[in-house]
Amino acid sequence: PQTIYLKDYTPFGWHVESVHLTFRLAPHSTRVLSKIRFAPNPDAPAQTFFLHGEMLKLIAAKIDGAPVTPDVTDEGLTVAVPSGAFLWEAEVEIDPKGNTALEGLYMSNGMYCTQCEAEGFRKITYYPDRPDVMSTFTVRIEGDEKVKLSNGNPQAEGDGFAEWHDPWPKPAYLFALVAGDLVNHPGAFTTMSGKDVELNIWVRPGDEDKCAFGMEALKKSMKWDEEVYGREYDLDIFNIVAVDDFNMGAMENKGLNVFNSSCVLASPETSTDANFERVEAIIAHEYFHNWTGNRITCRDWFQLCLKEGLTVFRDSQFTSDMRSAPVKRISDVIDLRGRQFPEDQGPLSHPVRPESFQEINNFYTATVYEKGAEVIGMLKRLVGDEAYAKALDLYFDRHDGQACTIEDWLKVFEDATGRDLSQFKRWYSQAGTPRVSVSESFADGTYSLTFRQETTPTPGQPEKAPQVIPLAVGLLNPNGDEVLPTTLLEFNQSEQTFNFNGFAAKPVPSLLRGFSAPVVLDRDAGREEQAFLLAHDTDTFTRWDAGRQLARETLVDMILTGATPDMAYIDGLEAVLRDETLDPAYRALMMGTPSQSELAQVLADRGHVPDPDAIWQAAETLAQVKAERWTDLLPRLAAEAEVTGTYSPDAEQSARRALGAAVLSLQTRLDGGAAAEAQFARADNMTLQLSALSNLIRAGRDEAALKAFEDQWRGDRLVMDKWFGLQIAATTPEKVVPRTEALTAHPAFDWKNPNRFRAVMGAMMTHHAGFHSADGAGYRLLADWLIRLDDVNPQTTARMCQAFQTWRRYDAGRQETIRTELERIRSKQKLSRDVDEMVSRILG
Ligand code: B3K
Ligand code: ZN
Q: What is the phi/psi pair of residue 99, to 5°?
């Protein structure tokens, strides 16, 4: 496979002045007629005229009305063109029903839909399929389907056809078409300048009652973007469509967002609180792309973080404003440490702006998205809120309608603030998670903190230079009073000392407040300091993190030495849990412990070979000891967690239910599942039903409940995904592989549906002790299914290869088995480019 490099970027030799498309829909033989006006691009070097095209049958082509015969390959075509402007016309035939990769135009449950990002438009017609080629699109759809949608505003509709026109120039990856017998949940919004916008959520008949929450989330997003970023919507209509077969969460096509149904449909009976929150966040994310992604797009796919990092940052600001900011921050850090850190510290490590790729779909990663968002958060901290707002205004002013780079983005900040950001730019080019170590000293009233930073080599980057690390710190005196409020230190050298004067006694540092930079902080300060911070820290993040570190240290001790749990941690935590002034959601987060995979990484970093069974056992013991120690605390918390009145997925109620779920999981260790069984019987919403079921599974008392749940929900695809996943995720290690295997034989295991496949295989690969069972059965089972799925859906297959990215942590036996399985995948006949690249990078 060919490698594409950022340094080889050249502009396309022509501008596209307009695009007219006609679709004659038919499941196996859709005809696509294109009329495209090209004009020479004076700023581009001379080049052969080339249009991308894959899986297309060319029926006819014309230039300025005269038939031509292009040279066609698997990747596109070349043809001789006039030296000035010209009209290109082509007719191609495609097979939407045969398209199982879910990229380009495909069918899902009898409905036509598209996914073009990143390079799917080339499976629809011949085109310069690159984000820096922008044009206006007019689309005519011919077919019997009741509903026929495309981007922009509706232009005409009649018997068997519909026409749409999108006045905003856009790259082809934002093109979308949907056609089917859909029904809509309507809504309306008036923008800040008084323009009325028609809103719709389109779904399959039967799903109408699951749209109200998504519609409210959309309106809130539109309002928030006006109030916080001054950004108004720019078309007469905004459509969202729910699709059951979809490779990712959702897609921000101009004026026509297409969603995985799991990310838009929601109802109390079928969705958990977490599902509601996710729907709200994804609707916001896709809506926010209208300005950060669509109006200003990426010059090339290396710049993906320009739109994704910024849009993730914006959606997390939105969630913080709608719900609890501390809870959102902690949840984001858990997610970052759980998904991005392993990526950044393993063979798949790559910069936020990668410099090469074989398959761009493999770079829609936690690094580009979540670390990309962290980089923007750091920038905002460094320049301050006011300068951030000024820079963003300048960005929208200067670059509206353009395809931009990270250089353009940083220049806006430099111009708005006068700051030199050349060192800061390393966050975009240097891969790996910086480790920051700290030492302190105290003499004559002066307290000093010395920081050192180091980033270990990552693939292709043996040497690392120091980065600009914004460190938010505070100091507490020994009584627990804050003597230095949160202060931002700019740590930009390999080693640097900061002094603080005027203290009578040595203060206690509270470091990396708010998780002000995506780094690993190595502070060997001892448990007393952590316990002190857990009790007294005024920063909600570092206070939570102190508890987390205590949990981590006691677990590591238990694993390595068979020690019993540290009572100072358990008692310190209890004091926090008893504080009823603290948000129940915050206390629920406090009750969590580092994931077992995270513990494996900590052990590996400290030179030990992690034993998944020992890690599992330690986590079990710790939970058991907490449960036994807290016999009078648990009922108190359970009472606080009680919700009265009608279900609402708002932050207040969800917080109580989150606390209730944490309590129930400990309670189950004491009563063998009695409370869970009672909750299961009376649950009238999915949050309670699922937490009850999860505990019954964990307690091995699940046969009747699983059956009842299946009987109740067999008609609901999204709920059944939960049923499939949970019985693997919540069970004990020895049952993981046999259960997964049994579920793959279940008649409802529709493995070509990405949600179902991920529900089952994703649950297995994230069950740490189950997946890493010493006999290698988990590895083999996953590899068997990845080999099978690759012929059908390379994108989803490649993504799931990530299960193997941490393989070098483990013992020689496990490493050997994983290597064998990776080699077996790599030697598959007709392996996709997607999977080939992933497996090769993982093997290193
Ligand atoms: N931009 C899309 C992701 C497309 C992924 C293509 N493999 C969704 C989003 O980030 O909003
Ligand atoms: Zn996005």
A: -90, 90
Assigned token pair, 278: 């996710």
Query: Which fold does the domain 16-268 belong to in CATH?
Result: Immunoglobulin-like (2.60.40)
Question: How many angstroms is it from 500 CA to the middle of ligand 1?
Answer: 46
Q: Which residues pair with 91 in a beta bridge?
A: 33, 60
DSSP-assigned letter for residue 127: B
The pTM score is 0.99
Helix runs in 136-182, H state only: none
**Do 16-268 and 435-520 fold alike per CATH?**
yes
How far apart are the CA of 248 and the centre of ligand 1, in A? 7
**Closest atom of ligand 1 to CA, residue 285:** 11
Among the atoms of ligand 1, which is closest to the Cα of residue 360? 7
Cis (ω within 30 of 0) for the bond into 118? Answer: yes
Look at ligand 1, atom 9, and give the residue with the nearest C-alpha.
251
Radius of gyration, alpha carbons of the chain = 27
Question: CA separation (Å) from 308 to 2, 252, 463?
Answer: 25, 11, 27
Atom of ligand 1 nearest to the CA of 308: 10
Express each pLDDT in 599-618 by its tens digit: 999 999 999 999 999 999 99
435-520: CATH homologous superfamily?
Aminopeptidase N, middle-beta domain (2.60.40.1840)
299 Cα–ligand 1 center, Å = 16
CATH class of 715-844: mainly alpha
Question: pLDDT of 679-689, one tens digit each?
Answer: 999 999 999 99
Rounded Cα gap, residues 625 and 619, in angstroms: 10
Is the pLDDT at 524 greater than 90, yes or no?
no
Domain layout of the chain by residue ranges: 16-268, 297-429, 435-520, 715-844
Q: Is the pLDDT of residue 371 over 90?
A: yes
Site residues for ligand 1, CB cut-off 6 Å: 117-118, 248, 250-252, 285-286, 289, 308, 361, 364
Task: Please name the CATH architecture into which domain 297-429 falls.
Answer: Orthogonal Bundle (1.10)
Cα–Cα distance list, 172 to 93, 116, 291 (Å): 18, 7, 16
What is the rounded CA–CA span in Å between residue 362 and residue 834?
7
* pLDDT for 764: 98
